[in-house]
Predict the structure.
Amino acid sequence: MRLDPFSGPYSRDPAITWRRINATPTSISYDDDLEMWLIAGHDNVHAVLSDTTRFSNAATMLPITALTADAGDILAGLDAPAVAVTADRPHHLRTRAILRALMPTTAVRAEQQWGPLVAARTDELITGMKAGEPTDLMHFAVQLPLMVIHDVLGLPTTAAQQVRAWTGDFADLVWGKPTADAQIAHAYSSVALWRHCADIVASRADSGHNGPGLIGELLRYRNNDDTNLTIAEVAALALNIVGAGWTTTAGALGNALAQALADPSRWALLADDEHYLNLHVEETLRHSPAIDGWLRLTTTDVTLDGVTIPAGSRCLVLIGAANHDPSVYSEPEVFDPRRSRGGQHLAFGAGPHYCIGAALARLELTTALRALARRLPDLGLAAGFRQQFKASAALRQLTSLPVQQHPAVRCPVAHGTSAAPRP
């Protein structure tokens, strides 16, 4: 079992690779080129993501491509404490419990707290589109979660585009294959993003005015007591959330839009059928997950599916392949919102590290799809569109999504054998 996540074919259609991986006799194997273990199979991936004792989260943000010494020295300046995404017990349990107390984790609570701001940002972006002109809808898919996560955290939106650039560089440093020169630039960006979060949190704490958003709530929870949370932990939580809170949602929203616009019947249903809208979102998360790989580090020898993985091994957990496991999903390459067991996907992970922002992401996806389908009923994919994703070992985001409001041709998304879409 081999994986070349930076190849042209994988960036065009990862589902072909997932199908090949799922057809191999073993779902666990060592990849000599990546120098890590590959773990596929729905049950295996679910087990690994749920097992925080034998599979550590500490490797999650360690670059998949070996850093040069110069880039490593620069990245050492990113001295954020391990919280949430990068932490193991007991730090993970403590900081996650705090986030759960402050963040809505159900659809109803998310709508109550964040619904108006998500709707306002969505309306603002749609109103800014120019009727009749060609549009790259990935601009919308990126800007909506980027602005929303700033609103949620209480970060100044004046720096939002700079934050976008920094987080893009950080994602490429961790999950991409940057050159030696790019590694240095990306390392500086990663440290700059950390300093941006740390400086804002420290400034608010020093002023005595905690300010708006989740950062303000975390500082109020801290209550000037380091035994509750340290200043550095508050800043690290902000870093985790701003880093993960918009890039993954942007990828998911772009994928959901591409699937919806591939078929006029889907687009029409999104406008008025709430049941279908939710099914469409869940099938997007299964069929085209924004995160299709994740890293873990074994803390002991682990035998999984008859294969022993040595202690201290880096493991790439193949979420995309798991979501296309034919033993769980019939015709997994087909986009079918009305399929059974669709809700068993692993797009948000599993177990103690299940995505804390899942409710917010679903709210953004449903709000955006509904509003766009209602206000732009004639929107369609531009003629000749073929999907292309950014090269990454984990993040699946379209490079562009060209659309037109009066399409002459409806183009099916080129994605495996799913060219015959099902509404």
Remarks:
- The CA atoms of residues 49 and 374 lie 38 Å apart.
- The first strand starts at residue 28 and ends at 31.
- The beta strands are 28-31, 36-39, 55-56, 135-136, 294-298, 302-304, 307-309, 314-317, 380-381, 402-404.
- The mean pLDDT is 93.
